[in-house]
Design a protein that fits this description.
The protein is of the alpha+beta class and about 425 residues long. The chain contains 14 helices and 26 strands.
Length: about 425
């Protein structure tokens, strides 16, 4: 198992290129199960979660090859409908194979998914949506077993306790592409990753209307074809590097980005005093003056993303004054607070709200442990500005969602390296 060592207090300067979006790539790979043809997916990041999804695809009888950020996917005669526990249990996004498997193979057996420990994340909306399309569902020995000779279009409402579900929207949308008749998904997620998936499905021949809205309509077709697709840039990696520039008082140019996918984040950081200039595919971030405290609430897109909450908290910890974070998506997503406090910051939790007392002085380097993917990024950001040396263990979480993050940070002037524990 590896750990990261960081010697902080070095302003980051230079240019960094953003990788393809993990949360777009994973459901797009699952969507290739809907066709008998070859598909080519470009701009794919080399990440642990991507490699896990490729293993799941191979277990389902799909040949896969990855080279230089391009994945080629081709079905074989060995296709089957069981996604095994040992793979699905390690990554929540693997539940995305449920819808396309059922639609194409008429049966799906998918283990209940795993992933980051950030509080309860039930899959009831997935099951509700699939059942609404006419599937028979059962749970046997930890597996979701779904069957249907052919799914039927229906009106599906996907509103949950904390808003719309991205993965449930993806699952139902993929399943509906081969269903008989028309499906309407109400309260659908409209995140950029869902839009990217919809564009991929339309290239394949799916009939989808009202993309990027909370009411998606799909007219089922008999079959889908293989296509080539370029994955969108990762907005969470982009946001992490924007925050990295602010927390280190740096000057970073971010290439291969989509500023329009981060309007809320950019607006909040500009309000705080960070200089951010944007063009179509580039973001320039420069620290010019002391930042002001912030008040953020995580919400479904286009609100402030929950996947940047932890990183923003690291920035708040070194921004003088009282900042407030309210988590509306995953109210228990605060495990990183105890590790940040080990570095000498002052964060107190009150229900789903964190009160951050920002300080003038830098946090102290310490030995800390990552609890999940985005918490790992928050600890890296804190380590970049900390006084002394920071050691972050369990960084396999980080490798699931950030491609070569230490190499990118080194190119910007950070003193960070990987060691084997």
């Amino acid at each position: 198992m590896d750990k990261l060592i960081i010697e902080g207090a070095k302003p980051l300067k230079g240019t960094v290129t953003i990788s393809g979006a993990k949360n777009s790539c994973l459901p797009i790979l699952a969507a290739t199960l809907l066709t008998d043809d070859k598909c080519v997916i470009k701009n794919v990041p080399s990440l642990g979660d991507v490699f896990t999804m490729l293993k799941i695809m191979r277990a389902l009888g799909i040949d896969t090859a990855m080279k230089d950020g391009v994945i080629t996917v081709k079905p074989t005669t060995r296709r089957n409908f069981t996604a095994p526990y040992e793979l699905v249990s390690t990554m929540r996004a693997s539940v995305c194979v449920l819808g396309p498997l059922l639609a194409k193979m008429k049966r799906a057996e998918v283990s209940f998914p795993g992933g980051c420990v950030i509080g309860p994340r039930p899959i009831d909306l997935h099951l509700k949506g699939i059942k609404s399309l006419g599937a028979r569902l059962d749970v046997k020995e930890g597996y979701i077993v779904a069957e249907s000779k052919r799914l039927r279009g229906n009106h599906v409402y996907l509103g949950g306790h904390f808003g719309s579900s991205v993965l449930a929207t993806a699952n139902v949308m993929m399943a509906a592409t081969l269903a008989r008749g028309r499906t309407v998904i109400e309260n659908a997620a409209c995140e950029p990753e869902i839009v990217d998936l919809a564009h991929f499905l339309k290239k394949m021949g799916a009939k989808i209307e009202n993309i990027a809205t909370h009411r998606i309509e799909i007219e089922g077709v008999k079959s889908l074809k293989g296509v080539t697709h370029h994955v969108i840039p990762d907005r969470i990696e982009t946001g992490t590097f924007i925050i990295a520039s602010g927390i280190t008082r740096g000057d970073i140019t971010i290439k291969n980005a989509r500023p329009d996918h981060l309007n809320c984040v950019i607006d909040k950081l500009r309000e705080s005093g960070l200089s951010i200039d944007t063009s179509k595919n580039t973001i320039k971030v420069k620290y010019k003056k002391p930042l002001r405290p912030m008040d953020i609430t995580t919400l479904p897109y286009p609100g402030f993303p929950t996947d940047l909450q932890a990183q923003m908290m690291s920035l708040m910890a070194v921004t003088e004054g009282i900042s407030v974070v309210t988590e509306k998506i995953y109210p228990e997503r605060f495990i990183h607070i105890s590790e940040l406090n080990r570095m000498g910051v002052d964060i107190k939790l009150e229900g789903p709200t964190a009160i951050v007392k920002g300080m003038k002085k830098r946090p102290s380097g310490a030995r800390v442990m990552a609890s999940d993917l985005r918490a790992s990024a928050a600890l890296v950001l804190a380590g970049l500005v900390a006084k002394g040396k920071t050691e972050i263990s369990r960084i396999y979480h980080l490798d699931r969602g950030y491609e070569k993050i230490e190499k990118k940070l080194v190119s910007l002037g950070a003193k960070i390296w990987r060691e084997h524990e």
